Amino acid sequence: MGDDRVSDSELNALVDDELDPARQAEIEAWLADNPESAQRVARYRAQSAGLHALYDDILNEE
């Protein structure tokens, strides 16, 4: 990656599986060298999993 920064919106897109595979791979590689950001992504993923556990049934009601 030429630019060593990854935006918060890209980190959220990573968690939400909204990135194309090439960009996802770049960010995952960047996270391997940026442990603080990797921890933040882990917290985002935990929060996302918790929200899905609480609300997916409601969202999928017909």
Cα separation of the termini: 44 Å
Mean pLDDT: 91
Strand percentage: under 5%
Coarse morphology:
elongated
Tally of helical runs: 3
Tell me the quaternary state: single chain
- Could you give the order of the helices and strands? HHH
> Quick one: biggest sheet?
none
How does the helix and strand content classify structurally?
Answer: mainly alpha
- Which residues form runs of ≥5 with pLDDT under 50? none
Number of strands: 0
Computed Rg: 14 Å
Helix content: over 70%
Give a structural overview:
- The chain has 62 residues and is mainly alpha-helical.
- The protein has a domain of 39 residues.
- Helices cover 73% and strands 0% of the residues.
- α1 crosses α3.
- The mean pLDDT is 91.
How would you summarize the topology of this molecule?
Elements (H helix, E strand, L loop, with lengths): L7 H8 L5 H12 L2 H25 L3
Put the structure in a nutshell.
The chain is mainly alpha-helical.
List keywords for this structure.
single chain, 62 residues
